[in-house]
Queue: 2 jobs
Job 1
Amino acid sequence: MTTKQRYEAAREIYREAGVDTDRALDILKDVHISMHCWQGDDVRGFDQDGPLSGGIQTTGNYPGRARTPEELMADMDMALRLIPGVHKINLHASYAIFENGEFADRDALEPKHFRKWVEFAKQRGIGIDFNPTFFSHEKAEPFTLSSTDESIRQFWIRHGQACIRISQYFAEELGQPCVMNIWIPDGLKDVPADRLGPRARFADSLDQILAIPYDKTKVYVCLESKVFGIGMESYTVGSSEFCVNYAAKNGILSLMDNGHYHPTEVVSDKIPSMLLFSEKLALHVTRGVRWDSDHVVLLDDETKEIAKEIVRNDAIDRVFLALDYFDASINRISAWVVGMRNMQKALLYALLQPAGKLKALQDAGNFTELMVLQEELKLYPMGDVWNYFCELYHVPQREEWFAQVKRYEEDVLAKRN
Ligand code: RNT
Ligand code: ZN
């Protein structure tokens, strides 16, 4: 049987369950996911040689890490070729590209330092999202926007402001909004004597960053919270309550990273509450494993639940989806492709649920039938629908894409050392 014939058979099975697979694929093709550049080089960036700091860590030293902008761009291209649809790329300020021997510190970054990224995005017809980099820098230890040292705090405020200008440049050049996410690693390893002071300074710093003029229809500033970091186990300045309240009060977006909460807390459950009170929401989709918050996204239950909350609440246009993980122990291009395709599969899974029927069962108190149907739907032939989607958008089906990554590893990655 051809892929199309399999799809047609699957379409019939879903149709009987009240699901329109053609419509699902039509919606899925328009979902743009922001692919994080930092998976390609273990979050090193191009503006300094120091270690990765901020309580985040990559482990492993799989060969072939991108060492230059050209290598990173080539690797991202390779990944994007294997992912159906049109997506965005997500950059950090530390990925500035300095030309002709010049250098600018984080507080002096300008749009021109990202000219090559704009060129890259333009040629591929994709957008760019952005992140100020408040880590991996000599001035980032131990505090940034919550520092008691006024000159350090001002340095990072200028960095935030510079990043807003760069984000607006991306939006204007590329004709699509830029999501700019602020995350700071500030926190304490052990029991604080003052939890309020750092947060008050952080709030004031954010006020100063946001005080510069910018176009809110072009730049969506977000604030990402976190419950812990390595070396910041006892206290983070940017806690969940801080970030959600600050964002709501100041007209910016909350960004929820599903690796940043207590272990039994799930972002999927937070999404509908956020949607009730905020017009837009941003997500970092990732996978927490014990102490780590940044494993490659799998097609696991929580990823599917996140997708369901977005899809069945009709919020595809209100939720900005980005991936955030970094694994240096496996082929880095595969890490991207697996995560991106899994996010799409999770969305497809959600789109293939008879949402109205399931909701009616819940509302009517038919919990037995609700469970029966939800469980049976898990083995419906989604794979045949997914493969057809891959065929439609000219990317390899099933694990066939991996042959291309292997070849690229032999031809390109293995030659880097
Ligand atoms: C860290 C945050 C943050 C970073 C990236 C590199 O815990 O999740 O989003 O991972 O900005
Ligand atoms: Zn994150």
Job 2
Amino acid sequence: MAQRTYRFDVVVIGSGIAGLTMAVGLAREGRNVALVTKKQLEDSSTNWAQGGIAGVLDTSDTEAIEKHIQDTLNSGAGLCDEDVVRSVVMEAADRIQGLVNEGVSFDRSKDGTFDLVREGGHQENRILHVKDKTGAAIEGTLIKRLHDEDVSILERWMAIDLILEDRNDPSKGVKGVWCLNPMGEVHSISSSTVILATGGAGKLWRNTTNPSVATGDGVAMAHRASARIRDMEFVQFHPTALAIPGDRPFLITEALRGAGGVLMTSEEHKDYRNKGGEPENYSYMKNVDSRGSLATRDIVARATDRVLKLTGKSHVLLVTEHLDSDILKNKFPTISQRLSSNGITLGVDPIPVTPAAHYMVGGIEVDDFGRCKNLDGTTFKGLFAVGEVACTGLHGANRLASNSLLEAVVMTHRALEYALTITSKDDIKNEGDIPPWRAKGLDNLVEHAPLKADLETLQSIMSDDVGLLRRNERLQRAQRKIEHIAKEIDLIWRRCIPTRKLVELRNMSIVASLVVEAAISRKENVGLHFNLDQ
Ligand code: SIN
């Protein structure tokens, strides 16, 4: 296999809101950009995001801004970086306007103002949305903008590892990335600036609302390159993923609870049907939190998990029969369609739901410009992380609903501005030698079955032992098992020509061990981390 080196000013890895925004912005300023994405452009978590983007649009409304700040801090359970929270919330209006300028048509009310909705943990209606497909609207718009620019789009290319200036001294920074191309060949992309926008790691759990590309690649690559990773114990489970046996979990947006949907067990639902009255009064959530079904996600998901364990059931019910079915169908067309293909009518039938892994709150530690940090806290030369893969300090121990798209637009804008200062369109610096991928003596991977088995085992460990409710013994057990799997994968890795599945599994085993290690180290229950033995 002849290895080639491709040279770019910047390589962006990932094609969700963060990766697309970066690639478009850099290319507009004349940078020579490669965008690497391991399936197709639209295979990203952004594309699947339903709810919306939180933000106060009237910058003179200090009270409303302060409430958004307080809701974010409250949800983050004392672990947010308050300066980051304040600055991100205050920049929301400008960046949301930026999305509008790109062509995103957020829904408006009859009077022409934006139709703002509410989700869990928000005191006020402040979420802009496009029906129940906000992410798809943003993704589609940014993909159009991408095609307007001269960007080398490398679909079905998979980043394997960062190429460092000096493997023994990561502080010298990056000089590119090794990638697997669609033919299974490894090539080098030489670039003094690398943007990691690879999203989360939901695929580590059996039930996830994430697309299958969410395998923690950016965190694993950055970790291998000695960047600093933090807060990995905070894994957000969305309380309401559609639970249909044999079907993948499908997100039922929290905005449906914002519109009045109420969680109940089947028994509570029977009582409600018999006796009627206020649906909230029947919900198991009413004894858990005064906000009921609209409490923050950590609280709702944990309470739901408890109920499922106590009742031995596979799902609870999201009840909407007290709401107007036609209005709901109009507001939530994607959900309505998905439900009806399963014989469920929105606003008529109860919806079976269960918690599912949804969002990685931790990630690669970055500064205010998206620059990755080294282990010693200095910035990692040339390496940026934006979107879900980055840990900015905004979310603390638990992300507030619809703050992730906000974080992505604000932080990506800052990273973009910074990246423009360190890259120059007139100055092709990437002429140095790029080390070849270690190709000598590697065999073709002939047995794929062990990889499949390892993936399933990893997902079982994470789902059973590193889920919403944790225990010391289970975490220790998970750690031992993951260590064993990681060693097995490493043996295959050293011997075989990489395949996409092997690269992903190697990354997943590393991210799994980071989550477990962080969960073991966290000695108090806070936000999304809950250990029954603490
Ligand atoms: C949702 O629509 O419930 C998800 C929004 C989010 O994850 O913030």
